[in-house]
Amino acid sequence: MENGTLFYFSMFENMGEVRFLFFSLGFIVYFLIVFFNVAIIFIIVLETALHQPMYILISCLSLNSLYGTAGLFPRLLTDLLSYTHTISRHACHVQAFVIYTYASNEYTILTLMAYDRFVAISKPLQYHSIITPKNLAVMIALAWICPMFSIGIGFILTARLKLCGHDLTKLYCSNWVIVRLSCTDTSLNNIFGFIVLITTVFIPLSFILFSYVKILIICQRNSSEFRRKAYHTCLPHIVTFVNYSITILCEITFSRYEDGFFPQAIAVILSLEFLTIPPLLNPLVYGLKFPDIHRKIQHILKTSKRIYSS
């Protein structure tokens, strides 16, 4: 199979008229994801009182959600309406790169959120000297650049493989599925993939867990009022972290099983969870749990209502 050969999304076979229902559901989900996340970014950018590290990181999380879902939904919705479901190898690599970097960026941003809360709670008097605008900008840049660099190397290794198949058993392009189509030795890809998994998932995961355990210990040593305030600011981050960890675990587990191990409906749900649930749930969590964001949303809604009623 030559590098320029088209891949074929075999999971779209035999959908029949039900594909129009899936298209409608997918379009609604994507519209809500874009609307909610753009709203969060819009509010944080325009409201000067929200130009603080914690809120800037929340906007980064929303921006990453828009980035990742842009790699999935436009192509997915097009395939649901199309009778041909092919994609070039180059375009497939681009889609997989966007989705994989989204997944890694999510953890690096959550790591920065955990660090921000850890410094705020453990060293409140030194917080503004540690989390300076310059330091925050550097950390955010590294949170985006490092995953892109490491994952980019992985895709370079995949691009060199000679492939002997063209059927992709997912609704989107996945590096692991492409590697499995190879008829040459993939040991280097497997080793490097494991290294990337460790550095972009398990190390950030360990740091996040460590940070929140330390925060919990600090809270237990302080007053009930201190604990209440700390839990209030940390809870949305913890909900986001747990939610994303569960969905990414489902994706990792599903991708390692052979085709046909799961029923197709279960396979679709497991493969799409990390690209639909966190981008949809995160802005709702932050919009409802953070009073500053919630009040701004209410103000915009009331203003809009007055404008339309006048």
Describe this structure in words.
The protein has 310 residues and is mostly helical. It contains 10 helices and 3 strands. The protein has helices at residues 18-46, 53-81, 89-122, 127-130, 133-159, 175-180, 187-220, 224-256, 264-289, 291-309, and strands at 6-9, 86-88, 167-168. It has a 3-stranded mixed sheet with strand order 2-1-3. Helix 3 (89-122) packs antiparallel against helix 8 (224-256). The model has no long low-confidence stretch (mean pLDDT 85).
Features:
3 strands; single chain; 310 residues; globular; 3-stranded mixed β-sheet; mainly alpha; 10 helices
How many strand elements?
A: 3
Largest sheet: 3 strands, mixed
How do the strands of the widest beta sheet line up side by side?
2-1-3
Q: Specify Rg, calculated over alpha carbons.
A: 21 Å
Question: N-to-C terminal Cα separation, in Å?
Answer: 65 Å
Shape label:
globular
How much β-strand is present in the residues?
Answer: under 5%
Which structural category fits the helices and strands?
A: mainly alpha
Order of helices and strands: EHHEHHHEHHHHH
Mean pLDDT: 85
Low-pLDDT parts are none
Number of helices: 10
Q: How much helix, percentage-wise, in residues? A: over 70%
